[in-house]
Amino acid sequence: MMERLKRFGPLGVITVILPTIIAILYYGVFAQDIYISESRIIVRNPEQSAPSPLNLALDQTGFGSTNEGNNTVIAYLESRQAIEEGNEDGFITDAYGAEDVFWFDRFGSLGGTSNEEFYRYFSRRLTVEEGASTQVLTITVRAYDPNTAQMINRRLVEQSETLVNSLSGRAQSDQIAIAQGEVEAAADEARRAGLELARFRDTSGIVDPAAQSEVGLQMISKLQDELIGAQTRLRQLQTYTPQASQIPFLQTQVRELQNEIARARGQLTGGRASLSSALAQYQELELAAEFAETQLAVTRASLQEAKAEARRKQAYLEKISAPSLPDYPVEPRRIRSILATFVLGLLAWGVLYMLAIGVREHKD
């Protein structure tokens, strides 16, 4: 045995023998058993179409379309916020910093206990991966106790579901709030236009200029008929009985009818206070009020459509498989790790040994 050690020399002892002995001691005796809990989830979006075969092929190369909801969950789970929210009661730090955990694997034994230190520590024990074709997220948590691994995984899944519901609800509320704001603005405009029309009626004393113009035209027509009748009788008397006592009365009646017709026409067409001027203002205000009411009806329909669209687009997190409860430790792979240490040590020893031989030959 000693002869073989002498063949390795100090270099072989340092690069092969000593690391292998340390690996045997650590992986064979001291290394903490690691239990792995897995869960599978996916973020569903009703408006997202199913991936085509071309997209599936491109997804494997990194050029295909991605699930934005999945990307959001991945970014969240790998953030400091997710770890802080999951560790609000100190459950996670207590689990990894327990006294029964080997000091080399225990949190806080080789460094500080700050949030930043724990983030780096826990990040090495959390894995979030998305399948290339299925877009299913696999959340893997490594812990030193099976129940702890499952509990941490369950917390992360619940936090992810809360995040998706929050973001989806916020998007829905924003979409509906915009449509609601348009409805309120249209309602204010319709109210303002109605008040302007009512104010015009109060100040002008005219309820409906069109109807009143129709009445005025009918009155003028009636006065004209009376004027024609009076003028006809006047001409007949002047022609056949010039000395008739009714002629002055008819002449006065004709003048009064002419004056009344002139006044009626003036009320309809003359000046700013005429019905024709009021009709133009009234029609403008009425058109504005009708347009505002139409706009209000359109925005109300848009609000209902926005609510329906928000319900259709609601994203949700679907649990493909719940966090598993591991029944045996999967890691560390003790024999494989010891063999890997031995092989890497041999490779390092061989490289360094050849370099040493080359240096000696170069000196000689």
Fold and architecture overview:
The chain has 364 residues and is of the alpha+beta class. It has 11 helices and 4 strands. The longest helix has 59 residues. It is rod-shaped, with a radius of gyration of 47 Å. About 5% of the residues have low confidence.
Strand content is 5-15%
**Could you tell me how far the N terminus lies from the C terminus, measured between alpha carbons in angstroms?**
32 Å
| Helix coverage percent | 55-70%
**Number of continuous helical runs:** 11
Radius of gyration: 47 Å
Structural class: alpha+beta
Strand order of the largest sheet: 2-3-1-4
How do the SSEs run, as a string of H and E? HEHHHHHEEHHHHEH
- Find the count of extended strands (DSSP E, 2+ residues): 4
Q: Specify the oligomeric state.
A: single chain
**Low-confidence segments:** 49-65
SSE arrangement:
Layout: H1 2-30, E1 35-44, H2 53-61, H3 68-77, H4 80-86, H5 91-96, H6 115-123, E2 126-130, E3 137-143, H7 146-204, H8 209-240, H9 247-269, H10 275-312, E4 316-321, H11 334-363
Helix pairs in contact: 1-11, 3-7, 4-7, 7-10, 8-9, 8-10
